[in-house]
Amino acid sequence: MKSILVPVDFSECSIDALKFAAKAAKASGAKINLISIIEKQNYYFLGSDPIAISPELIESNNMHDEQLKKEIRLKLEKLKMSAFLKGINVECKVGTCLKVYKCIIEYSRISGSDFIIMGSNGAHGLSKVLIGSNSERVARFSNIPVLIINGKINKLETVIFASDFDKESYKVFPFIKSFAECFKADIHLLKVNIYSHYNNSEDSELLKKFNKKYNTNYKEVIQNSPVISLGIQRYSSKIRNGIIAIGTHGKKGLIRLLLENISEETIRSSVKPVLTVNLK
After folding, report:
1. What is the pLDDT of residue 267?
2. Disulfide-capable partner of 187 in 130, 142, 196, 218 (CB 3.0 to 4.6 Å)?
């Protein structure tokens, strides 16, 4: 971790994420890129004809956005002076966009960030079914690791790496390992079996092979469950001061609908923070 991007909307959950990012930055020596985003109206989506919009309304909206930017910049500068950010290199940015998650991902590229930490209080009801939350979309489309925090993290003691431990898991683990080492946290290797695919002896060999590869002795756990995401939740609920780490394929469109998206379901249902690392 050299550069951490933290989106904030000044809600409690986004400040919790920033506080944890500060701990990560102090542990790793990383800088923090702080961004707050103004979501602009999409006139096409609202059913308005952009050509028919009066110049006066456009000017009024632009003036409102500029005023809002000034106010947000002041709030960011005040936040930058917080005691928990003392000694950390923090850069502030205000962005405007039609889609918040796209702005976050684009700015992560522009700013050279290699890690995103963001808060989420989750999407609920119909909005959850139709569009999900911005945090889920960032985790799905980001090429860099994303940590979704849904509450205060006072202490990090355990990182639960949930995986099938095939060859792709070796691609994402180095970041997870270095992240855990920053906090001197233990790592648990978790393999979840659904009921139709029980083979604990084979899974045990997979976990042993993984430990041998890294010359480590991490705790090896095999959890049986009807649904993989449920198995992850059941095990993680037993662990205090832990987070879940998982690989994601970043699938889009129809292929995403056809495949079980374990990472997104874990983000939605988890009461613990979830770290996703893209398998690309």
Report:
1. 83
2. 218
